[in-house]
Design brief:
With 478 residues, this protein is mainly alpha-helical. It is flat and about 75 Å long. The termini are far apart.
């Protein structure tokens, strides 16, 4: 273990010496680190005066934490160039061959680069935040408490680790610094959008939810590091000279994986669908456990937490909750049918969102969306239990007729996304990352077209033409 740490630090020390010798990196980083707090301090002071004038002190109290969050973000974006050129930059300068020919293990080299990539933006961010807090302490602005400061520092650290982890992956897969810098927008823009949501939570004072954001970002960062190590190949770095968009190869690789051994639709269903479904046995079991546990927990939460909220809720709030629950269970539409096409399109959209969310977050967002959808069932049944309806009767009459098709479709669609995330962060010898992604997309397409879509189509028909009659008959509605 000690020898491994020495190897990692050897790579990190080499990187640090190269950085501190390059004034083109240090100069803008130092200038922006020290000047940006002055700008944010002036903006915060003017905003506090404006809000105090109109009596909105609650917003003014949250301006300093918001400013800390923004100040910590900007140095990370500036110093991200260090991580972006960590591998591809050395390749262009011709200094990577001695490093790759050393007896170090691949993960020694990778972690050494990641360590330096994280240290540089964190030092800049912490310095900038500390400088800003010193200025705030000398003015008539409210300082955040120690708990909020700890949360803000953890968010800044999580953002740095996430952005650097993604930048290192891009650096490994790129063939030029220009290409790596262009791809940096796929890091900065999503994190900036995520920070907008965190800012809203910060102004609302929901600090506990922000701790969940720290945990989620940490999980995604760990998966990104795992992804980079899984697809780190020394020969790949030395052998590839330029990138080219070979549309023909992309289509052939995808089509070959999608078609498999099937020569016709019948043989494709007979051979390829069972093959891909066998790969999903364990992920389906995981999704099934999550569905049962999530529904049960949401049911328990609804039956316990909702009565506690009722004394503080208005009649309008309670009516809105009941109305939403009635719509979810199908009571509101019992006498006015929704079209099967509308229900089908809504379910397909949910499945596509799970896939897209899982693809960009290694399954994390996909799992969250799946849990949100599946937990809604337990929450709605819990609310109806409070207002005098039998949960078992509602489940059997209002959900089970179409749920025997819809719920398995949702579980299978989420299971294939979970498998995609696991395969992406698992070493695939002899395959490039692009080939692995195309083959995984082909497997997802097989499941989506061959299993999920037919199940959702049947579920939509049943929910439109059968479930309302069963529900009305069970609840004695006309």
């Amino acid at each position: 273990m000690r020898n491994d740490l020495q190897m990692i630090w050897l790579v990190a020390g080499r990187e640090l010496r190269d950085q501190f010798r390059d004034w083109r990196i240090l100069s803008p980083l130092i200038i922006l680190t020290l000047s940006f707090p002055f700008l944010m301090n002036e903006v915060a002071g003017q905003a506090v005066a404006f809000f105090a004038k109109y009596g909105t002190n609650l917003i003014a109290d949250r301006l300093v934490p918001f400013s800390v969050l923004i100040i910590g973000f900007f140095p990370i974006t500036i110093s991200l160039v260090v991580a972006l050129e960590s591998f591809v930059g050395e390749k262009e300068r011709g200094t990577i061959e001695p490093l790759l020919s050393s007896p170090m293990k691949d993960w020694h080299i990778y972690f050494g680069k990641v360590l330096v990539g994280i240290l540089t933006p964190l030092i800049a961010s912490y310095t900038s935040i500390a400088f800003y807090l010193v200025m705030v302490s000398r003015q008539h602005l409210q300082m955040p408490n120690s708990y909020t400061l700890l949360l803000l520092f953890m968010l800044t650290t999580a953002h740095a680790v996430l952005m650097v982890s993604a930048a290192i992956v891009i650096s490994v897969q790129s063939t030029s610094v220009r290409a790596a810098n262009l791809l940096a927008s796929f890091i900065v823009i999503p994190v900036a959008i995520m920070m907008q949501g965190e800012s809203v939570l910060l102004f609302w004072g929901t600090d506990q939810v922000l701790w969940l954001a720290v945990a989620a970002v940490g999980i995604i960062s760990g998966l990104l590091i795992r992804l980079g190590i899984a697809h780190f190949q020394r020969e790949y770095l030395l052998g590839r000279e330029f990138d080219s968009l070979n549309v023909r190869w992309v289509w052939q690789t995808f089509w070959r994986a999608l078609k498999g051994e099937g020569d016709s639709v019948f043989s494709w269903y007979r051979l390829e669908i069972p093959k891909v479904m066998r790969k999903l046995v364990f992920p389906i079991l995981i999704m099934l456990v999550v569905a049962v546990v999530g529904s049960w927990l949401s049911y328990q939460w609804a039956t316990v937490a909702v009565p506690r909220m009722l004394p503080a809720a208005t009649t309008r709030d309670f009516e809105d909750v009941v109305k939403g629950a009635r719509q979810s269970i199908g009571l509101a539409q019992a006498n006015q049918r929704l079209s099967a096409l509308y229900i089908f399109a809504n379910n397909v959209r949910a499945v596509l969102l799970i896939m897209l969310g899982g693809l960009v977050s290694f399954g994390v967002l996909g799992m969250l969306l799946y849990m949100l959808n599946i937990s809604l069932v337990g929450g709605v049944l819990g609310i109806f239990n409070l207002i005098g309806f039998s949960p078992l009767k509602l489940f059997a009459a209002g959900l089970l007729p179409h749920g025997i098709f819809e719920i398995p479709a949702l579980i299978i669609a989420s299971a294939i996304v979970l498998r995609m995330a696991v395969i992406l962060v698992t070493p695939q010898l002899g395959k490039s990352m692009g080939q692995v992604i195309l083959e995984l997309l082909a497997d997802w397409t097989k499941v989506f077209l061959g299993v999920v879509l037919p199940l959702l189509a049947i579920a939509a028909m049943v929910e439109t033409y059968i479930t309302p009659f069963i529900l009305m008959s069970a609840l004695n509605l006309k």
